[in-house]
């Protein structure tokens, strides 16, 4: 079984500011800092955050399921503000998924200093029963990460404005 799930989040920040976090190694740092109860370590195995970068992310002790995953940033397009990451090992690939890719974009909003953050998960399930159980949690976590990036960027803007 294969499918795709997308979500959108409108935020009061410019697409270029959101992209600075989305399209760089700042993204995993924001995730680590925001969710220390879920993630414990990030290792950059190759690259600088652009296309071809490979990272390993380790879950915090006590988090159910696999203890880590490795993903590659297959496409990081700063002009289109488009990022495609593919899970290579671990994570949901040990929980019934044959393939798991995430797509992040930042699109200018209609109003000044707003943008639409989009997140898409494209997946292929190898084991439908276990994969479907994991999918809802994975989607929820993905949305929380999008929201964390938005909150981080907005806070940075507020801190810059008040200083």
TrEMBL record:
InterPro entries: Bet_v_I/MLP, Plant_def-hormone_signal, START-like_dom_sf. One of its GO terms (molecular function) is protein phosphatase inhibitor activity. Transmembrane segments: none annotated. GO terms for biological process: abscisic acid-activated signaling pathway; alkaloid metabolic process; defense response. Gene3D superfamilies: 3.30.530.20. Coiled coil: none annotated. Keywords: Alkaloid metabolism. It comes from the Eukaryota. The keyword Transferase does not apply. Residues 2-124 form the Bet v I/Major latex protein domain. One of its GO terms (cellular component) is cytoplasm. Belongs to the BetVI family. This is Bet v I/Major latex protein domain-containing protein. It comes from Sesamum angustifolium.
């Amino acid at each position: 079984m294969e499918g795709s799930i997308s979500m959108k989040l409108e935020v009061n920040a410019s697409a270029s500011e959101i992209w600075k976090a989305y399209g760089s190694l700042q993204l995993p740092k924001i995730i680590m800092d925001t969710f220390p109860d879920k993630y414990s370590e990030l290792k950059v195995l190759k690259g600088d955050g652009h296309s071809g970068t490979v990272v390993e992310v380790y879950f915090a002790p006590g988090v159910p399921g696999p203890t880590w995953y490795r993903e590659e940033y297959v496409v990081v397009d700063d002009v289109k503000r488009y990022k495609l990451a593919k899970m290579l090992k671990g994570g949901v690939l040990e929980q019934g998924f044959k393939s798991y890719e995430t797509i992040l974009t930042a699109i200018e909003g209609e109003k000044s200093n707003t943008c639409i953050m989009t997140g898409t998960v494209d997946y292929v399930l190898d084991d439908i029963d276990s994969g479907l159980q994991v999918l809802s949690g994975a989607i929820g976590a993905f949305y929380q990460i999008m929201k964390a990036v938005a909150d981080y960027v907005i806070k940075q803007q507020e801190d810059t404005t008040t200083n």
